[in-house]
Amino acid sequence: LPMEGWDGTTDGRPTDLVRRRWERFGTSGAGLVWCEATAVHPDGRANPNQLVLDETTVDGFAELRGLLDPSQVSILQLTHSGRWSRPDAAGPRPRTAYEHPILDGRLGIGADAVLSDDELDELADRYVAAARLAHEVGFDLVDVKHCHGYLLHELLTAVDRPGDYGGDLAGRTAFLRRVAEGIRAGAPGLDIGVRL
């Protein structure tokens, strides 16, 4: 399963432990490798050592893809942990889709954790940029994670969120549609999967 690793560097790069894991994926005989959950923004990591895919780390991902057998179908999961973000040793730093009456109280967070529409626009662009980079280094498919209570899953339930990314079904799926359209335009030939 594409779980978050806990063994990258604090700036989101692979380490020897990550390379060893991917090397084992490559020699496993599996025809499809659904690689680990990778943050598209450093602030969206579930732990301080989760991998991040951006312009500064793409060479490490090219190296990781090279550890897989060329015949293996490779899927890279792209994610943002949202209210479960813990990007550094300072502790949790949640970012949410909307104010949640139960979870906010339980986690001790407020309205200041809610991402604005402008921030979500920028984040959608980061998903597209990460997908383009994944395609450039040889991944066959990106999985845009919309499950397990992370940010994009939460957007699907944002019935009370005002603005472009909430309310009716069209608003709650606007982020996913923006990302999918951006990937199709920016990385033609890259397949897209979504875990709901």
Supply the key terms.
196 residues, 4 strands, 36% helix, globular
Explain briefly what this protein structure is.
It contains seven helices and four strands. It is globular.
Molecular structure report:
With 196 residues, the chain is α/β, with parallel strands linked by helices. Helix content is 36%, strand content 11%. The chain contains seven helices and four strands; from the N terminus they run αβαβααβαααβ. The protein has a four-stranded parallel β-sheet, covered by helices on one side. Helix 1 packs parallel to helix 2 and helix 4 packs parallel to helix 7. The radius of gyration is 16 Å and the shape is globular. The two termini are 14 Å apart. 39% of the residues are buried. The mean pLDDT is 96.
Helix content: 25-40%
| Number of beta strands | 4
The major pleated sheet works out as: 4 strands, parallel
Distance between the termini: 14 Å
